[in-house]
């Protein structure tokens, strides 16, 4: 049986940590190198923020996705999809999940000039 060879590319050679680069570093590099990836990454920023908050509150309450789904009267696959950060939910579905988590859902609008000033 032939042994698989491992090819080390420049990115792997530059890794300092024995476990590799962080996900954030990998994403930052991909955004810098690939305009199409950067475009889609930006398009799903809100979905990732929603996912992060749902995961945070679900895990703080020691709930599984299945348990949260039952409380929100939805399916575990729907909760999984919300937590993937690749899906923007409807307001009514998001409200059901927020109520099941016993959190207040709020939406804020921020002028672009304030966002630019913060960077």
Helices and strands, with pairings:
Blueprint: H1 10-13, H2 23-33, H3 35-43, H4 45-60, H5 65-72, H6 76-83, H7 91-101, H8 112-118
Helix pairs in contact: 2-3, 5-6, 5-7
Q: How confident is the prediction overall: mean pLDDT? A: 84
- Low-pLDDT parts are 1-16
Strand content: under 5%
Q: What gross morphology would you assign?
A: globular
**Which class do the helix and strand fractions yield?**
mainly alpha
Q: If classified by CATH, what would the architecture of the domain at 46-101 be?
A: Orthogonal Bundle
What is the tally of beta strands?
0
Tally the helices.
8
| CATH topology type of the domain at 46-101 | 434 Repressor (Amino-terminal Domain)
- What share of the residues lie within helices? 55-70%
Question: What do these coordinates show?
Answer:
This protein has 119 residues and is an all-alpha fold. It has a domain at 46-101: Orthogonal Bundle (434 Repressor (Amino-terminal Domain)). It has helices at 10-13, 23-33, 35-43, 45-60, 65-72, 76-83, 91-101, 112-118. α2 (23-33) crosses α3, α5 (65-72) crosses α6 (76-83) and α5 (65-72) packs across α7 (91-101). The protein is globular, with a radius of gyration of 19 Å.
Q: What key phrases describe this protein's structure?
A:
434 Repressor (Amino-terminal Domain); mainly alpha; 119 residues
Give a short synopsis of this structure:
The protein has 119 residues and is mainly alpha-helical. Helices cover 62% and strands 0% of the residues. It contains 8 helices and no strands.
